[in-house]
Amino acid sequence: MDSPIVTQLFRQLFRHPACQSRRNLAALSSCLQYGRRVHQQRRHMASRNTIRGAKGMSEKESHWQQRNELFTLDMADEYKAYPTVTANDLRSYRGRPRKVKMLMRDFIEDSLYNPHYGYFSKQVVIFTPGEPFDFNSIPDEPTFHSELGRRYTEFEDALEAKDDRPDESRQLWHTPTELFRPYYGEAIARYLMSNYLMTTYPYHDLIIYEMGAGRGTLMLNILDYIRDIEPAVYDRTKFKIIEISPSLAALQNSQLLSSAASRGHAAKVEIINKSIFDWDERVPSPCFFLAMEVFDNFAHDVLRYDLDTEEPLQGTVLVDGDGEFYEFYEPALDPVAARYLRVRHAATAGQYRVPYPTSRAARWARRQLPFAPNLSDPEYVPTRLMQFFDILERCFPAHRLLTSDFHTLPDAVKGLNAPVVQTRFQRRMVPVSTPLVHQGYFDILFPTDFRVVEAVYRAITGKLTRVLSHEHFMRSWAYVEDTRTRSGENPLLSWYRNASVLVTV
Length: 505
Known about the structure:
Blueprint: H1 4-14, H2 22-37, E1 64-66, H3 76-81, E2 100-103, H4 104-113, H5 119-123, E3 124-126, H6 141-162, E4 171-173, H7 176-179, H8 183-199, E5 206-211, H9 217-229, H10 231-234, E6 237-242, H11 246-262, E7 269-272, E8 287-292, E9 301-305, E10 312-319, E11 325-330, H12 335-348, H13 360-367, E12 379-381, H14 383-395, E13 399-406, E14 420-425, E15 428-432, E16 443-445, H15 450-461, E17 465-469, H16 470-477, H17 491-494, E18 499-504
Parallel strand pairs: 3-4, 5-6, 5-8, 6-7, 8-13
Antiparallel strand pairs: 1-11, 2-10, 9-10, 9-12, 10-11, 13-18, 14-15, 14-16, 17-18
């Protein structure tokens, strides 16, 4: 994982408008190797005498300031003076904010989804491999990997041929829907169709909502399969895409609808360009809700715990006049974070991981170490995901959820349930060691603790669920012989071993 100095280099690079000079890009490239070798200094908190409630505490010491590896400036005065904003407040901002503070979940949501500079609004290109892979003719998995790399290069070369100059910071990523087209989508279609026929057919239509549809490939594969296999079900099928990204919604409206029309699906498709968190319409009809690799980009709050009392403190991000970031921790939780902790505790009967030793003796021993911090390592909690479950319960009371996401991720930053923060530079993925990065240029994705998430979902919606491994789900619903190589290896089953599937039963 890269040193925090790499993050600083990216900040300096991306502080300028999107049309950065090639000179800046070259400077960054030459500094990356050095940045990786810089020794990472230990993160520590303010001195011990700033423990809240301590006698004689000064006004400056009423907040915990997280000091990162490069700065030790005392920003308490700025913290007191700067206004608090939310991601909703920043939607109208065309430039990244300065001299403000916000909760970590608002900082992450703004970084990813701001309509003017957010990562998913401006930076992302979705890879498509062209013709589907003929897995039965591929010798083995290494050969498939090589062929995928070749197609990746061809795809990006074609993009650059359309531009005046190469885009060295293009954010290109892929999904299992694209890699395993159409077999992945057909497996989802079999699950949907089977459960629909066993439950609400013929009394209700088959209504499918999908979040984060990307290029719409999953939708097209599902509709193709249902039309070919069960025309009577297809006649009653409606597919609605909920897309927060204006650029992806525009792509879907232009390309996806034309593709759907050419395949005869135009009357079945509706694209809704809005955030699911802005949804206010009640949908009483039974429906399926698809969220494939969506949870990982939901904003999280960050908490640290007082090692003496085990009480949580909530993280706030301060942005100074130069666009630099500082962390502060408040003992007073906002209502959303406080409710999440209550729901999690009740739903799991108190059985969940914490980012500190549960033994008082172990915590005491840890505090005796030189430069020991006053607070625990950070814990990232999925408060936005809880709010998504609230919307499902309130607006889609008869829904059935199908979601797939990663239960573990490599190269995560420090902390419990911590994210991977990465950007793509010169066709290479570059991870960094903090989520406090220049807004819009970095993907911030979290692992999902499915045991806790399943319990929280059940508690909020009152529905029963089942969690399966990705391989188990695909063995149940995919025709796995379609993606088997000549050696017997099967990338559809083996490439997503760090993913799980949650379904409403």
